[in-house]
Amino acid sequence: MLQTAEDIRLLNEKISYSSGFLTRINDEISKVIVGQHDMVERLLIGLLSSGHVLLEGVPGLAKTLSIKSLATTVNAGFSRIQFTPDLLPADVVGTMIYNQQKNEFFVRKGPIFSNFILADEINRAPAKVQSALLEAMQERQVTIGDTSYKLQEPFLVLATQNPIEQEGTYPLPEAQVDRFMLKVVVGYPSKQEEQQIIRQNSLGNVQPKIEPVASTAEIIAARELVRQVYVDEKVENYILDIVFASRFPNQYQLSKLAPLISFGGSPRASINLSLAAKANAFLNKRGYVVPEDVRNMAKDVLRHRIGLTYEAEAENMSVEHIIDEILSAVNVP
Q1: Angle, alpha carbons 167-168-172 (nearest 5°)
Q2: What are the start-end ranges of the H helices in the chain?
Q3: Is residue 212's pLDDT more than 80?
Q4: pLDDT tens by residue, 20-63
Q5: Strand 182-185 and strand 78-82: pairing?
Q6: 235 and 178 co-located in one domain
Q7: Are residues 167 and 269 in the same domain?
């Protein structure tokens, strides 16, 4: 939809007024999380664009704490599901239970019936449990028995996984991973940040308390504004070129990548890259998307949607390197 300069100016004003709760959320999270600005920003982008987020990193990088802190800042429901090899689908979505006194079955809803779902170490549960999340993540509903139940908005699955330990883990299949809007790789803090972490955790058991500073209504209203953020046709074509270059590298003078890519980004990659770029513009209080928004989100949207061949693995070629090559080759509008 074509928008005039006046429309965008008005949208900028609305965004500037409506995004105040993000500052409050950031301030609360920073009470307990030192550094990790990129990770927190990606969690907020998932929150704004109604996209599920997968955090990958070694233990001890505050992945779980960040998700719990974000959920606490919003006055909404929160459930933590610790994924283990003996977990059953009914432990996640709920089940039918027989009441002997009334001689009838009733539904006991599982922890999935909440606003924020922390799926901790999601790759530790078998495929049947992971698949129980698929309907909830994609359709925003859960089926128990013969009845489907709508999940309350906002609904967000925030999952963590450890990439190092392979024993007792079940790698997420492509269909499951594709449900996540973003896959965020969490790195180590800097030396100065870690020094601050040491000091903060050496002061006894007094931990700062996080207060709810945002409502679900504010989040739902912000999501509506994110959808209205203007994306020029040139920027849309830029998004399409990036995704298509991951599928057909030969068409973008990237023949050297063709033997390294087994499959490229799905149409969901294009949708999510556009939505993530809009949310990134919203975070920067803009009512329009610029190419830098797209570039900023490209790795998080694409790193779990591009498959590598055995040849790429033999050459120690990472997905990040391939995305860098694609971003360098595609013309920026």
Answers
A1: 100
A2: 5-18, 20-29, 37-49, 63-73, 89-93, 127-139, 174-177, 191-200, 216-228, 233-247, 267-283, 291-302, 310-314, 319-329
A3: yes
A4: 888 888 888 888 888 778 888 898 999 899 889 998 887 777 78
A5: unpaired
A6: no
A7: no
Which residue bears the tokens 């203007």?
Answer: 230
**Is the residue at 221 inside a domain?**
no
- At 104, list the tokens: 């009838």
Final residue of a domain: which of 153, 179, 198?
198
Rounded to 10°, the helix 20-29/216-228 angle is 120
Three-state secondary-structure class, residue 44: helix
pLDDT tens string 184-201 = 888 888 888 888 878 777
Write the DSSP assignment of 223-289 as a string of letters: HHHHHHSB--HHHHHHHHHHHHHHH-GGGGT-GGGGGGEEE---HHHHHHHHHHHHHHHHHTT-SB-
Torsion angle, alpha carbons of 126, 129, 132, 136, to 10: -100
Among residues 6, 17, 8, 67, which one has the least CA distance to residue 42? 67
**Cβ proximity of 78 and 210 under 8 Å:** no
**Could you list the residue range(s) of the whole structural domain that residue 110 is in?**
21-198
Count of domains in the chain? Answer: 2
Q: Establish if 29 belongs to a structural domain.
A: yes
DSSP 8-state code for residue 207: P
Block residue for tokens 């209203």? 221
pTM, two decimal places: 0.87
* C-alpha dist (Å) from residue 302 to 68, 242, 246, 326, 332: 26, 10, 9, 11, 18
> Which tokens sit at 43?
């969690």
- Nearest alpha-carbon partner for 38 in 68, 71, 19, 61: 61
Q: Which pair of structure tokens corresponds to residue 145?
A: 């028995």
For 138, phi and psi rounded to 5 degrees?
A: -90, -45
Residue pair 215/25 in contact (Cβ under 8 Å)? The answer is: no
Q: Give the whole-angstrom CA distance, residue 52 versus residue 158.
A: 6
Contact by Cβ (8 Å): 156, 46: yes
